[in-house]
Amino acid sequence: MEEVARERRYHELGAVCREQGIHAVLTGHHGDDQAETFLLRFMRQSGVYGMAGMLAQASFPVVQTRSSHFSRDWPELVVVRPLLNIDKQAIYNMCRSKGIRWHEDSSNTDTRIRRNKLRQLISSRSNSAESPFNKQNILDICLGMQRHRAYINEKVTGLLSDYAKIDLSTGTVVLQAKVHGSGHSVTPLPHWARNAALHERVIASIVGWIRGRSQPPELVHLRRFMDAIVDYYKANLHDDPSNEHSKSTITAISTAGVSLYPPTKKRGWLFCRQKPRAGEIEKCGDNSLGDLVIWDRRIVVSVRGSNSSSAISTDLASMRWSVHALVDCAKQPWYDKIDRHKRLIQKARKHFEPSAVQATQPVVCVEIPYEDGGMHGTRVCPIYAFGYTVADTLEARRLSVEMHMLCKTPSTGAFEVVAAL
């Protein structure tokens, strides 16, 4: 309930900010909120990133599944928390002294909510400096964790730049599998995995980017990936990890919505979105040219008139388009075009992703007006699938498809275009 309410608030706030050209949202988060966040994440066994708590300034979370107002051209919308290091009681005192009225959320006293239960615990036991619930002690720990996080971020960015191949067109990441020397590790590991803290954050950055989430995944999910990677090298202690006859029997591991595939002779460790179930990803339909939609909560998609056209013709201006999950297309009457498109790609010997990756890719379709014997209607035609455009339709209709991942690319810290075709 809390998470749903939070997403709804950010959805509404984000929509208003974009309509009004507002670039920053100031919140009333204070020191008590920070202490509660720390303890909640401590109970969830979060690592350094989780227990660093909330930042004084952070990117505004994008949670909506569709928005015609979303634009990469606007300055980044941020959340600013100016009261984060101020005690809640001090804020009460200031309001009383200045005659400022405030609103108290009645749900804050509901102890069925975990955060509220912690709030009461902190209030009753935080007076003593020796208390583990002392708010100032907790805030000091958060500040120290934030310094560690900044240092680790710098190191992780370098490791991703050197050892990760980030494929913007498929939303996948391949980490180098080869081992060059053993370093100080008992088990020889790739350079990016030798330090446990950096190993954890490399995986967390990749998983967060693929999922389209700014919040780090829980440590229990990261450990599943980390343990599988270390176990793989232990099983192949004297073998080349890329050897297809290696001793390890590890298969794909899926958790937190992301799948990890072991290295093969041709590539390293492959991370991709977990293969969706039929109906899992909501169709984004009835869009106009120029709209941007967020598909699968991770990819921003837009269809426009091509740059070569000086003006959009009437039929294009009224055209509608939609985004589908490949897994939901098999029973559609237009699937034969996708199947033919797939065979043409394979015949041209272009790089073709494994089926697990194909299943996570969007299919973009347009509704094309037609007239037949005095009857008017529209027919649905796919224009983009398997990372390539269905050229005949796209060229005939003078359209361009553009996509980018919702989260910033971890190795560059910037939004980058997935496809502009």
What is the fold's blueprint, element by element?
Layout: H1 2-20, E1 24-26, H2 31-43, H3 48-51, E2 57-59, E3 78-80, H4 88-98, H5 114-125, H6 135-163, E4 164-167, E5 172-175, H7 196-211, H8 219-235, E6 253-255, E7 258-261, E8 269-273, E9 284-288, E10 292-295, E11 299-305, H9 314-317, E12 320-325, H10 335-347, H11 355-358, E13 362-372, E14 375-385, E15 388-389, H12 391-396, E16 399-405, E17 417-420
Parallel strand pairs: 1-3
Antiparallel strand pairs: 2-3, 4-5, 5-8, 6-7, 7-8, 9-12, 10-11, 11-16, 12-13, 13-14, 14-15, 16-17
Helix pairs in contact: 2-5, 2-6, 6-7, 7-8
Q: In words, what does this structure look like?
A:
- It is a single chain.
- Helix content is 35%, strand content 20%.
- With 421 residues, the protein is of the alpha+beta class.
- Strands 4-5-8-7-6 form a five-stranded antiparallel sheet. The protein has a five-stranded antiparallel sheet with strand order 9-12-13-14-15.
- The protein has twelve helices and 17 strands.
- The two termini are 41 Å apart.
- Helix 2 (31-43) crosses helix 6 (135-163), helix 6 (135-163) packs across helix 7 (196-211) and helix 7 (196-211) packs across helix 8.
- Strand 13 (362-372) and strand 14 form a beta hairpin.
